[in-house]
Amino acid sequence: MALAFDEYGRPFIILKEQEQKSRLRGLDAQKANISAGRAVARILRTSLGPKGMDKMLQSPDGDVVITNDGATILEQMDVDNQIAKLMVELSRSQDYEIGDGTTGVVVMAGALLEQAEKLLERGIHPIRVAEGYEVASRIAVDHLERIAHKFDFSEANIEPLVQTCMTTLSSKIVNRCKRALAEIAVKAVLAVADLERKDVNLDLIKVEGKVGGKLEDTELIYGIVVDKDMSHPQMPKRIEDAKIAILTCPFEPPKPKTKHKVDIDTVEKFQTLREQEQKYFDDMVQKCKDVGATLVICQWGFDDEANHLLMHRNLPAVRWVGGVELELIAIATGGRIVPRFQELTPEKLGRAGLVREKSFGTTKDRMLYIEQCANSKAVTIFIRGGNKMMIEETKRSLHDALCVARNLIRNNSIVYGGGSAEISCSIAVEAAADRYPGVEQYAIRSFADALDSIPLALAENSGLQPIDTLTAVKSQQVKENNPYCGIDCNDVGTTDMQEQNVFETLIGKQQQILLATQVVKMILKIDDVIAPSEY
Ligand code: ADP
Ligand code: MG
């Protein structure tokens, strides 16, 4: 088996045995599957942790993505093998459920597969391995509950939330600004959170980015920012106390359709048509004014003549606003989207304290800020950065941080990171293995070894001696009976993750273990692979 790169720099996996055979059975099948899964895990292993490496992936059309996020790396890779695809799915499901921990889950699954291979070689039946893993995963998940901490937070004391988000961001490229970004993420989540129901609708947080400025200029806006400008340069740049009509219907005179026949054979007829068109639009503008609108936001465009008229009649307008943005604007301003022009009424107007146009740089780039909205439950995180790749990666990193903050609002339990939780689970699982008389105990012990792979990878990626560091930390945990000792990746001087403020969410860690075990069990249970021999 080898990992190769095609002419676009995309990695792919070559499974030598599978080129000749169309069918693999029994142990051969399991081994081939295991090595495919492990190959994927090996790619991600170096990306784990605060000192993890980033990957640069180039798409066939030349787009470059630089990322540290496990789910994104796998998403961008063209994986051909079906088992390797399962690992991609694994990372994706962690991303859907939790948002963070997408690298760790794959590394964990890879380690479980590696251990399983050894067990299979010793002649243990795959089903016994799968059963042992199941038992062990339950022990580990229960143990996590025991070492987890609950913390209290309120809107006045958001520090614990910020610290946890900072741990998530510390392994990303945006590490430099983790404090500021973590605060933005927490404030954004709290702004849209329903603390009574313990739920957060992340759809209400709009993440917008624009190239230029510095990462430090990234800001949270209590309102909506849209990448659009007023349709006419002479319209006002600033509207206070705006009453906004949000239209998804055309805002222009109806165009003659080609299937109707309009005979215009005299100048007079043309004039009448023109006047009628003008009058039609003039009536529309008047109707907007009558209901009290001071700004019109349309999904569709209108032509230059209409634009000119709007300017004359002093009704600012914004055109070509996307559907998702319209919905957010409607939520934020408490307005209703008007799908038929006749239905426009004063109550359907949205309200915002301030709508302003802001220009950036020297490129005549303008954006529209809608602030001080009637219902502030919709916010925008506006990212600035040196280039597009940086902005995209910041978006992904913020997604992780937002998910972590949301998970903490749902369940405010945390475990300590830096591999400390895994080491503690490993010790607990190892100890529990003795209670099982059957062959499963081998699998349970192997599960404990697999848990060690996370701290090992963290140490290795930080340039430490992996085995030495792990054994030292492990014996410290046992000696001091302190489950918070982990790998000191940043060379702070203490292994106590409680002191270092390295937190992760409990549900995230539990989900990692459960998902990894599930996939590994599934892979182990495949003993026959029938695939087309040529393609
Ligand atoms: P994932 O995609 O799985 O979240 P990351 O690259 O974000 O992968 O790495 C997360 C791992 O790094 C976790 O095990 C976490 O505990 C660890 N980690 C994060 N920050 C630190 C730190 N400052 N010191 C030690 N370990 C850390
Ligand atoms: Mg992370």
From TrEMBL:
Q: Is Chaperone found in the keyword set?
A: yes
MF annotations from Gene Ontology: ATP binding; ATP hydrolysis activity; ATP-dependent protein folding chaperone; unfolded protein binding
Which GO cellular component terms, listed alphabetically, does the Swiss-Prot or TrEMBL entry include? chaperonin-containing T-complex
Give the signal sequence positions.
none
**Which catalysed reactions does the entry list for this protein?**
ATP + H2O = ADP + phosphate + H(+)
Compartmental location: Cytoplasm, Cytoskeleton, Microtubule organizing center, Centrosome
- List the keywords (alphabetical): Acetylation, ATP-binding, Chaperone, Cytoplasm, Cytoskeleton, Hydrolase, Isopeptide bond, Nucleotide-binding, Phosphoprotein, Ubl conjugation
In which domain of life is the source organism classified? Eukaryota
Q: What residues form the membrane-spanning segments? A: none
* InterPro entries per UniProt: Chap_CCT_epsi, Chaperone_TCP-1, Chaperonin_TCP-1_CS, Cpn60/GroEL/TCP-1, GroEL-like_apical_dom_sf, GROEL-like_equatorial_sf, TCP-1-like_intermed_sf, TCP-1_chaperonin
User: Entry's NCBIfam families?
Assistant: chap_CCT_epsi, thermosome_alpha, thermosome_beta
Q: What does this protein do?
A: Component of the chaperonin-containing T-complex (TRiC), a molecular chaperone complex that assists the folding of actin, tubulin and other proteins upon ATP hydrolysis. The TRiC complex mediates the folding of WRAP53/TCAB1, thereby regulating telomere maintenance. As part of the TRiC complex may play a role in the assembly of BBSome, a complex involved in ciliogenesis regulating transports vesicles to the cilia. Molecular chaperone; assists the folding of proteins upon ATP hydrolysis. Known to play a role, in vitro, in the folding of actin and tubulin.
Q: How does it assemble?
A: Heterooligomeric complex of about 850 to 900 kDa that forms two stacked rings, 12 to 16 nm in diameter. Component of the chaperonin-containing T-complex (TRiC), a hexadecamer composed of two identical back-to-back stacked rings enclosing a protein folding chamber. Each ring is made up of eight different subunits: TCP1/CCT1, CCT2, CCT3, CCT4, CCT5, CCT6A/CCT6, CCT7, CCT8. Interacts with PACRG. Interacts with DNAAF4. Interacts with DLEC1. Interacts with SPMAP2.
User: What does the sequence similarity comment in the record state about its family?
Assistant: Belongs to the TCP-1 chaperonin family.
Q: What is this protein called?
A: T-complex protein 1 subunit epsilon
**Which source organism does the UniProt entry give?**
Dioscorea cayennensis subsp. rotundata (White Guinea yam)
Its taxonomic placement starts with: Eukaryota, Viridiplantae, Streptophyta, Embryophyta, Tracheophyta
This protein's encoding gene: LOC120259140
